Amino acid sequence: MSIFNRITYILSGIFIGLLTANAQELLKPLGANINLPTTNAPVKSYGVAKTNSLTPIDLPIFEDFSYSYKSVYPSTNLWLDSNVYINHGFAIAPLNFGVATFDGLNKKGYPYNLYASVGVSDNADVLTSAPINLKQKGAYVYNATSDVHLSFYYQAEGNGDAPEPNDSLCVDFFKPRQNKWQKVWGKAGYNPTATDTNFYFVKIPVLDTAYLDSAFQFRFRNKATTSGSLDHWHIDYIYMKQDFSNLDTLRGDVGLVYMPTSFLKNYWAMPYNQYNTTEKATTFRNYFRNNYPAAEQANYKYIVYDEGMNQLNSEDLGTFDNPGVPSFVSSGYYTGLHANPTITISPFPTNMSVPTNFKIEHITTKGTTSASNDTVIELQKFYNYYAYDDGTAEVGFYLNQYAAKTALKFKLNTNDTLKAVNIFFDPIVEGNLIQGSSFRLMVWDGNAGTPGGVIYKDSLVYPTYIQGTHNVFPTYKLTSCLPLTSGTYYVGIQQTSNKGLNIGFDKNTNHMDALYYDIGNGWVQSAIKGSLMINPVMGCADRQVGIKENKKTSEFGLYPNPAQNNITVHIDNDMLTDTSIEIKSALGQQVYSNNLTENNSVIDVSQLENGIYFVFVSSKLKGVSTQKLIISR
Fold first, then answer.
1. Which of 190, 267, 278, 346 has the highest CB neighbour number within 10 Å of its CB?
2. Separation between Cα atoms, residue 550 and residue 485, nearest integer Å
3. If one looks up domain 557-631 in CATH, what number appears?
4. Which runs of E-coded beta strand occur in 261-320?
């Protein structure tokens, strides 16, 4: 599918599609993944892994990706590559905490092929196991009657984008002596119904004796449109064992399946100096799943640590209501606890004087047993910004109306200054990079319960995308710091074109009551469950966040800037020897290069689209100097 033409409309509950073709607030698939360090890479070529030096793994093998709270890559204990995205946000109604997601993005969160043809599926992600010993274990020699099976669960689309019929998810087995991969299972893409949130069970027998070798491997792979975060498949509960009975469809456990809700009442993160006891949540919610066939007893507690992992507080909420956690097949997710579900402790100090974070360890135990998914760690940030979102985006939110305004509500508990806004823009808009559309940072008062009078309107700026970073939003600084007294405000943008500026949208935290938009008919509260990734940055007294600008004085002159069709680059006489110029886009793509041989060189930039570029002048004597260039017509 094409990232530019397909639009996902999502509403309450399990995100039912909007039915009106002229809806004003819209969602669409992403072109990149903010939670991965971005860089471009070619399409994956499925070859034979070199595994001769690796020690084979013995059966049984189990993988549930429950470590997604600490890593976005597959564990190196079992997997040889890291193309898939390990996460706990894309799946709907998962089997446990964490899944592996296959899409059209490479391991760095960027499209395999930014300009892939619409509707064409190509090789995309692959997840290859380490060598597995299917030859001999102890005195036992594997044979054709060993009844070895590989099983797993899969879900199409989830919180992402549905794979189309020419997309697919496949499983291959490796025949070591023949040095050959053999496809043993495949599923063509399809569009699940709005109520289909199932994970489907697959069980594949190992029948061919050519697989019975100490260097056996299996792999998952998908075909997808490789121009964005598209055509999603999510897999979980990979299980390979001998003597696989019909009852071995799901490994029994009781544990969390989603990240618990925030211990803050209104936000996922907030400035440390704005926190007080009124911001503490009085209750929170966990979603437990019991994968046993009957109710099971279990215990739950949480522990709060400071940034240095020193324990601050803990609360044991005891055992679940008798007779225990009901089986998921009969009751679905379980949220009830025998103990009072309110937060009875003060998890965070109220006298924070510097930015910091706290780690909340959520622990579920069943008797004396433990499993890999018993513990989930949540990071509570108190830096210098507000955020409703959890830092990850599943789709992009946009308005396709000229001069449309988007605003998020925030409350100051004490006087402060607004110095910047962090915004994650998806880097692709209608076949072009985001740098082609400008916007203005805006602030409105909140006295009326909706965005009121304009109290700040900044000059035109252009979206940027940070290449080679991990989970960092670009920072857009205000032209001048804005002093604000305590109270409610709305912070957002006004776009200056009818192009949809895709802003990252988090489907796993719901703060639609704080999101408003105006397409010319007045402010309307959002009807889409989720959280927009716009984060006001507070404190002009050098509390830094985001990207620091290079303050070094440039070794060359650049004017006019902003420019339209031509720019003049001025260099001094001592730079005339062996000097070159290079212009790159905000995504790092080279758009111009040449040598400079005179003091004032006029360069034609009329072929460049509106947006932000970076000019690099390199000389043998002075080294490399950089300036930002804005093209605005």
1. 267
2. 31
3. 2.60.40.10
4. 288-290, 299-305, 311-319
